Amino acid sequence: MRIAQVPPLYEAVPPKFYGGTERVVAHLTDALVELGHEVTLFASAEAQTKARLVSVRDQAIRLDPATLKSDLAAHITQLTEVRRRAAEFDVIHFHTDMMHFPFFEATPGKTLTTLHGRLDLKDLPDVYRRWRQFPLVSISDDQRRPIPFANWAGTVHHGMSAELYQPSYEPGDYLAFLGRISPEKRPDRAIAIAKRLGMRLKIAAKVDAADLRYYQEKIEPLILSEPLVEYIGEIGDAEKSAFLGGAAALLFPIDWPEPFGLVMIEAMACGTPVVAYACGSVPEVIEDGVTGYIVHDEDQAVTAVTRAMGLNRREVRRRFEHRFSATAMARRYLDLYADASASAPPNVALAAANG
Q1: What single-letter DSSP state applies at residue 46?
Q2: Phi, psi (degrees; rounded to nearest 5) at 324
Q3: Burial level of 116, CB count in 10 A (0-12/13-18/19+)?
Q4: Rounded-to-integer distance, Cα 250 and Cα 173, Å
């Protein structure tokens, strides 16, 4: 198939550090190429990909040192280029939320849109009612709850390249927290769990500008007052195997409807079990008693960490390969692409729509 991948332009593809959506797009794109498909990626110039790259910006927005820049203008330029070349593809896979809807109203059947974020926001229901002709993909069944009426084509759980992560089959002597420091991620819970267990906790996480006050007022004092806790900062893919593989368990003590939680499968790829609070997608990702434990409070989490250290880490890795590899994800998307391609209008109609 001839497939276009359209990610947001905020991070590089794949990201240098944090960035879930762009990371998934990178792994999906490469897996589709490896499966023999003709893939075009519309991204910023520093993208590393096995696909054909169409550069629509000189660099990712977050990496751009320019003080004055327009996220909206960058994405409009990207979508205009995709629309201009739409006739070249059997299916156009968008990862840009709803931004492309007005651009492709004439040919929604040729598109597939994966929604990567939370959907319980005030203004979203009106958008997905207004443009119900666009087929959507959820990244977990739980993600759909705020807009069950939307035009859902399927659910595809995220996947990652198995080759990127080197598993460790002996449990380490510390707990890991990876991702972003924010109120909904609850690093304070992770610190409390580690403190009760008397175990070291290593925190590898970014602090967004929006969360800086939360970090300074709520989390930094906990880190400074607890010698068992070490704040490492933001890490990239090259460092994750050692960080996650060296841990006894990953703590995922979230307090929000997490649409997926990529860090859970990254830990599983390293053979590391996950202790996660039962929010959002967690029950769909973690197999309780196999790849980790699902808990509801701090007492359960403390008990679960001890139990998780006895899990078979080879089986944790095997379950990742079976359920969450990039190839498994790509095959699930190919089924949806086939449906979209079968219902799409002929390219003549597309050319007319493009003017």
Answers
A1: T
A2: -130, 20
A3: buried
A4: 12
